[in-house]
Amino acid sequence: MKKIQVTILTGFLGAGKTTVLNALLQQSNGQNNVVIENEFGQVSIDGGLVRQYSSDVYEISNGCICCSLDDELFDVLTELVHENPVPDRLFIEATGVADSGSLAGVFLRRDISQRYELAQVIGVVDATNVAERLEEAEEVSRQITAADLLVLNKMREATEEQIAEARDLLRQLNPFAPVVPCEDGKIPVSWLETRRSRMAFQLPASVTAAAKPKATSHLQQSDISSTTHTFDQPFDLNQLRHVLTVSLMLYAKQIYRIKGVVKSKEDGQSYLLQSTGKALQITPAAAPLSMDSPSTLVVIGKGLKKEAIERLLRQGVAR
Questions:
Q1: pTM of whole model > 0.85?
Q2: Element (DSSP H or E) covering residue 125
Q3: Alpha-carbon gap, residue 213 to 171, rounded angstroms
C-alpha cells in the first residue's frame, strides 16, 4: 500500500519556514503535493502565500496541532488517504512555537503510520538571531534537536561572527543533522529524498564536543547537553522499548532526543533507535555494526546526568 510521505517544517517565528516551503513546492511541482498550514490566529496569513505554489492547502488555525491529534487534523489525514489519486507528499508547516518532536510523534502512531511515513523533519533557523532565540524560548532548542535536517537561513543578512556562532550552536545541539546554508529559503529539493527511516547512523565527530558544550552563555542558561553511551552487550529490544517509552513520557521536558544503533540479542542484527518527542522508533539499521563495534546511543536534553541515563539504558541490556 502506498504511504504518503510527510515532511514537517519547523522553526521559530520569522525564521523563514514559509519561504523554504514555497521553494520546495516550486521545485517539486510535478508531484501531487498537499500542504497543511498551522497558525495560532484565527486568520491564516501564510496559507495565502503558499497557495501561489499549491492549490491543495488545508488550514488549521487558532491552535497548535503539536499538542495532540485533534479532530481537525485527524479529519484532514483521513480525507487525504481517500483521495484519488492519493497524494505523493504531505508538507506540514507548524506554528513558530510548535514542539516539533510531539508533532512528528503523531506520525509514528501505529494507526497513522499505516498510511503515512514520516520522511523528515526540517528545522529552519535564522542565522542572524539563533543565539538570542535560544535565550528567549525553550521551543527553539526543541525544534533544533528534533530536526533531521537544519536549514541555516538568511545567510546574506548575517555577519561572519553570527554565522560561525550559529553553526557552532547547531552542531552542539544536534550533531546528527546536516546543516544546509541558504539564501531566501532555497534548498535543493533532493533533500526530500533523504528519508529519516533510511538514514545510516554514524556517530559524528562533533558529538564528543556536544557532550561537553562550550561555556557559552546561551547553552549555560538553557543547560542543554548530550551524553554518549556505549555497550558491548546486546539489548533486549522489547525491554529497551518499554524502558525508554516510559522514560520519554515521564521526562519529556528533559529528554529531547535519543539516537543511536543497538545490537539485538534476539536476532544478532543492528537496529537504528531514535526518539521524536514522546515517540520511540526502532528499525533495522541501514549500515549494520561490525562484530567488534559496541552499541552506541546519544541522548540530548536539558539537565541530563550521565550516570542516571546510563542506569536507565542498562535496564534494556539483555540478561
A1: no
A2: strand 116-126
A3: 10
